[in-house]
Amino acid sequence: MQLTELLSQIDGRQLSGPVDLCPTLLCHDSRQVCEGALFFALPGAQQDGHAFVPAAIAAGACAVVVERPLPVPESVALIQVADCRRAMARMAAAWYGFPARQLLCIGVTGTNGKTTLTYLIEALLRQAGHRPAVIGTISNRFDGYSQPASHTTPESIDLQALLADFCQRGATALVMEVSSHALQQQRVFGIDFAIGLFTNLTPEHLDYHADMEQYFAAKQRLFCGDMPGCRQAVIHLGDAYGQRLWQCRPDALTVALEQDAAVRPLAVRQSLAGIEARIATPAGPVELRSALVGRFNLENLCCALGVGCCLGLDTEALARALGQVAAVPGRLERIENTLDALVLVDYAHTGDALEKALQAVADLRPRRILTVFGCGGDRDPRKRPVMGAVAVAASDLTVVTSDNPRTEDPLAIIDQICAGIRDPRVVRCAPETVPPVGSAYVVIPDRAAAIAWAVEQLRGGDVLLVAGKGHEDYQIIGSRKQHFDDREQLRLALRQRGALPRNGR
Ligand SMILES: CC(=O)N[C@H]1[C@@H](OP(=O)(O)OP(=O)(O)OC[C@H]2O[C@@H](n3ccc(=O)[nH]c3=O)[C@H](O)[C@@H]2O)O[C@H](CO)[C@@H](O)[C@@H]1O[C@H](C)C(=O)N[C@@H](C)C(=O)N[C@H](CCC(=O)O)C(=O)O
Ligand SMILES: Nc1ncnc2c1ncn2[C@@H]1O[C@H](COP(=O)(O)OP(=O)(O)OP(=O)(O)O)[C@@H](O)[C@H]1O
Ligand SMILES: N[C@H](CCC[C@H](N)C(=O)O)C(=O)O
Ligand SMILES: [Mg+2]
């Protein structure tokens, strides 16, 4: 594609140097530049891409997009723009032939529930006769083809490449998680979402966003802004930020569990077998049976119904589609055992998610609740003491361990978690002396050892919740990513106790 054609996508740019160029590649990492590449110098959180312009040119870049003028050789085109990430998103869309225009695009944002909702909406889109692609935390996938995701929402160049690939494979629709990082960094700029869904907003990513207001402002961009955002909004009102969002999108289809809204439950029965509910919707009352458990999943199902109504599905089609989603990997995922205990792996890695997951467990009225969790390194440290407090408040026995320490000291992360455990009734015990019943916590930094120890404590009627890593099949310690899977570790520990069922893997 001609550089001039790409440049026609962006306003207010200044150009110097040659224009009659045909770049071979779009790229923002100097380490990936090849002969003829068009390089975007992104101002980053860690580094400034402008510093890598000389390296990009040395590696063969024929053109560079910058926010500040820089000296470059005469043979290189220099394009100066106000916002490099936005220019990159627009040019990437053009480069790949505007694939999003061929898809019915649905964007899901909010602190928790996005991944779950993409699975539910995927089923609704199928029911509506679409061939949906899914982009999110677990994987980017379409029709049997799946690649593990490195980000919840890919960088704009990767995103547009994926969309073009999905279109080529025959996708007609897309449901994607839209993270606050993505909205802040313009990764989805230019995508015209037919439907945007807001689930909730609770403290998270406050290492990246200055405060909750900035975090909310990022999320809000999907609904009211210049992106172009979404045509139809679905908003969960049982959340103070959802209420605020509704003020800027009074046309939204509203969802709530406990207040008046277009989608709201009329009658609910919850058990370990799942959720049975009669739910009011604009299409009429839906009789829903879902194998998903927990009140937060009732909320997710209601949000999905809102989206399904926007798709024009009738009540039977809505119930049929959502009833088909029996589980979401790593979200309250059950691990079979012969102890008559419920063993669950869950991705709760925020205070609110952990509280909701533990509430879902408590609603099952178990004998005891045992919780194993840690917090990721190089991520918002503010959630650590909160998760510590939430875990011990709702558990009989908590095992504080490591998540993905990344470049932080795992013991320092654990100390920050424990600093939140202020309730004098909760005692810290050594693993050898822990009382069998009561409010206690132990610290076992090695996650595999923590899981094995918790499994040893399990008795019939107990629930064991291993939280924080869900579907992840790795652990990042330092800069090394090694294989680690909570589900495998649990099965290993259960096997060692002779408590893995005959057919258990
Ligand atoms: C905090 C964050 O979002 N960081 C993202 C951001 O990095 P950054 O702004 O820090 O970039 P940087 O490292 O300072 O580098 C600046 C520029 O210099 C370039 N560079 C750098 C080094 C070099 O030698 N040459 C070079 O050209 C880089 O490619 C980049 O373009 O831009 C990078 C390029 O697009 C991303 O890869 C990077 O994601 C990092 C890896 C990350 O961990 N992001 C997470 C926190 C994230 O995005 N999470 C969200 C939300 C998760 C959720 O809630 O589910 C997600 O959507 O996944
Ligand atoms: N509606 C909800 N409200 C609160 N917590 C929820 C909700 N849905 C799911 N959770 C909890 O949050 C965890 C993560 O859920 P899910 O993966 O669906 O959210 P997400 O928004 O995609 O998260 P991430 O931003 O990490 O990708 C679940 O394992 C569960 O513990
Ligand atoms: N989407 C979240 C995932 C956190 C998962 C947890 N296991 C961790 O590594 O902190 C993030 O990037 O902050
Ligand atoms: Mg997700």
TrEMBL record:
<dbReference type="Pfam" id="PF02875">
    <property type="entry name" value="Mur_ligase_C"/>
</dbReference>
<dbReference type="GO" id="GO:0071555">
    <property type="term" value="P:cell wall organization"/>
</dbReference>
<dbReference type="InterPro" id="IPR036615">
    <property type="entry name" value="Mur_ligase_C_dom_sf"/>
</dbReference>
<dbReference type="Pfam" id="PF08245">
    <property type="entry name" value="Mur_ligase_M"/>
</dbReference>
<keyword id="KW-0133">Cell shape</keyword>
<feature type="binding site">
    <location>
        <position position="187"/>
    </location>
    <ligand>
        <name>UDP-N-acetyl-alpha-D-muramoyl-L-alanyl-D-glutamate</name>
    </ligand>
</feature>
<dbReference type="InterPro" id="IPR013221">
    <property type="entry name" value="Mur_ligase_cen"/>
</dbReference>
<dbReference type="InterPro" id="IPR000713">
    <property type="entry name" value="Mur_ligase_N"/>
</dbReference>
<feature type="binding site">
    <location>
        <begin position="152"/>
        <end position="153"/>
    </location>
    <ligand>
        <name>UDP-N-acetyl-alpha-D-muramoyl-L-alanyl-D-glutamate</name>
    </ligand>
</feature>
<feature type="binding site">
    <location>
        <position position="30"/>
    </location>
    <ligand>
        <name>UDP-N-acetyl-alpha-D-muramoyl-L-alanyl-D-glutamate</name>
    </ligand>
</feature>
<keyword id="KW-0963">Cytoplasm</keyword>
<feature type="short sequence motif" description="Meso-diaminopimelate recognition motif">
    <location>
        <begin position="403"/>
        <end position="406"/>
    </location>
</feature>
<keyword id="KW-0573">Peptidoglycan synthesis</keyword>
<dbReference type="Pfam" id="PF01225">
    <property type="entry name" value="Mur_ligase"/>
</dbReference>
<dbReference type="GO" id="GO:0000287">
    <property type="term" value="F:magnesium ion binding"/>
</dbReference>
<dbReference type="GO" id="GO:0005737">
    <property type="term" value="C:cytoplasm"/>
</dbReference>
<dbReference type="GO" id="GO:0008360">
    <property type="term" value="P:regulation of cell shape"/>
</dbReference>
<keyword id="KW-0436">Ligase</keyword>
<dbReference type="GO" id="GO:0008765">
    <property type="term" value="F:UDP-N-acetylmuramoylalanyl-D-glutamate-2,6-diaminopimelate ligase activity"/>
</dbReference>
<keyword id="KW-0132">Cell division</keyword>
<keyword id="KW-0131">Cell cycle</keyword>
<keyword id="KW-0547">Nucleotide-binding</keyword>
<keyword id="KW-0460">Magnesium</keyword>
<feature type="binding site">
    <location>
        <position position="185"/>
    </location>
    <ligand>
        <name>UDP-N-acetyl-alpha-D-muramoyl-L-alanyl-D-glutamate</name>
    </ligand>
</feature>
<feature type="domain" description="Mur ligase central">
    <location>
        <begin position="108"/>
        <end position="307"/>
    </location>
</feature>
<dbReference type="InterPro" id="IPR036565">
    <property type="entry name" value="Mur-like_cat_sf"/>
</dbReference>
<feature type="domain" description="Mur ligase N-terminal catalytic">
    <location>
        <begin position="26"/>
        <end position="96"/>
    </location>
</feature>
<feature type="binding site">
    <location>
        <position position="179"/>
    </location>
    <ligand>
        <name>UDP-N-acetyl-alpha-D-muramoyl-L-alanyl-D-glutamate</name>
    </ligand>
</feature>
<feature type="binding site">
    <location>
        <begin position="403"/>
        <end position="406"/>
    </location>
    <ligand>
        <name>meso-2,6-diaminopimelate</name>
    </ligand>
</feature>
<feature type="binding site">
    <location>
        <position position="468"/>
    </location>
    <ligand>
        <name>meso-2,6-diaminopimelate</name>
    </ligand>
</feature>
<dbReference type="GO" id="GO:0005524">
    <property type="term" value="F:ATP binding"/>
</dbReference>
<protein>
    <recommendedName>
        <fullName>UDP-N-acetylmuramoyl-L-alanyl-D-glutamate--2,6-diaminopimelate ligase</fullName>
        <ecNumber>6.3.2.13</ecNumber>
    </recommendedName>
</protein>
<keyword id="KW-0961">Cell wall biogenesis/degradation</keyword>
<dbReference type="InterPro" id="IPR005761">
    <property type="entry name" value="UDP-N-AcMur-Glu-dNH2Pim_ligase"/>
</dbReference>
<feature type="modified residue" description="N6-carboxylysine">
    <location>
        <position position="219"/>
    </location>
</feature>
<keyword id="KW-0067">ATP-binding</keyword>
<feature type="binding site">
    <location>
        <position position="379"/>
    </location>
    <ligand>
        <name>meso-2,6-diaminopimelate</name>
    </ligand>
</feature>
<dbReference type="GO" id="GO:0051301">
    <property type="term" value="P:cell division"/>
</dbReference>
<feature type="binding site">
    <location>
        <position position="472"/>
    </location>
    <ligand>
        <name>meso-2,6-diaminopimelate</name>
    </ligand>
</feature>
<dbReference type="InterPro" id="IPR004101">
    <property type="entry name" value="Mur_ligase_C"/>
</dbReference>
<feature type="binding site">
    <location>
        <begin position="110"/>
        <end position="116"/>
    </location>
    <ligand>
        <name>ATP</name>
    </ligand>
</feature>
<comment type="similarity">
    <text>Belongs to the MurCDEF family. MurE subfamily.</text>
</comment>
